[in-house]
Give the backbone structure.
Amino acid sequence: LANVFGWAFAIWGVGLYWWGGVLYAFQVRRLLTTSPRLAPEDRPARGERRSG
């Protein structure tokens, strides 16, 4: 019986791990598609640090 529960919890944990990855991917996609893009003149030059 313990073996069955062990495998059940292991499979459930793997499923939750993958579901978390899917949710993370959707959030990243939504962030990238809804956030405004900076105009080229507002972007810092390569190696330059922005203040503030």
